[in-house]
Amino acid sequence: MAGGIRWTSPFAWIVRVIRVPGEERRSLIQITKATAAAVIAWIVATAVLRLPQPFLAPYAAVFLVQATVYRSVRGWAQQVGAVSVGVLLAAAAGQLIPSVTVALGLAVFTGLLIGSWRAFGDSGVWVGITGMLLISYGSATEPVLLADRLLETALGAAIGAVLNAVVLPPLHGERLRTATSRLASAIGDVLEETAHLVRGGDDPEAAERLQERMRDVRSLVAEAEDAIGWTRESRYLNLRRGREEREEPLANLVSLWPPLAQLIDAVSEAVQSEQPIQPPGEYARGVIGELLETLAEVARSGDSEKLDRCRSLVEELDRLLVMPTDEVTTSIGLGAMALPARRLVQRLEAD
Question: Is the pLDDT of residue 92 over 70?
């Protein structure tokens, strides 16, 4: 079986690239652009500028084809800045320190220290590495070679950043769509299970299973927040940003998490313990159960007619809460469930 997976997975990956505009296709596009950027940078550096050993040009080009256009532009500034500081550091060490060993050690230490500055980001390590390479190659005392290294890096980084921004600039709509679908389905399932638990009465094991499902939902909420962040970043400086998916439906689903968690806690408390919260009466449980089932349908589909039904059921819960009753603890249990249920309806109305 393991051998079958190894042989069939590449084929399945290619099929998904062709059939589905998702993560696999985006990865293939980025890989192709990185390859093209490296080749173009090498051709320009060798055939046009005739730079000697311009290995930094294709290297920088590959690393500047980033997941978003914004990261490519920011990475270009950070990479060029880090290499520039590294070149100056190597030049100073080469001129002032006769010993190559001492100069190399000082350049690495000072470069890594300077590179830890937040403004350099992930490129900060190249301050020390650039200084080390130039000193070890014997280029630190030759101004022309130092200038060549800086030119190679700026050229390669610029080619990678421009290619990433102009040719099919990356968007993350598929991540947004996937996260929306998964979270909506998970919230709908949890609401339906909660409705079944409310109607079924005393079932501590079911309450424990529901808590486990809620941890799954929390994980999907974190994934959704990450997808929203990537989507927002991918719009910056992106020529295709007008075609991106709307993030509001997913953001609205994420906003359901706090009242959903409160509702599950209230239901679990009512089911697992006798005091201070007891389950409401049979009719009230039926109203809450129907409300949760209807909310599940709205979370999955956004059906406005179903949302109208949710409002009516919330009004019925309000009526039950103000009715005179001798069952004080039952009223407490009903109120504990009704408040987060109302908030769920309000959040879905905002969509």
Answer: yes
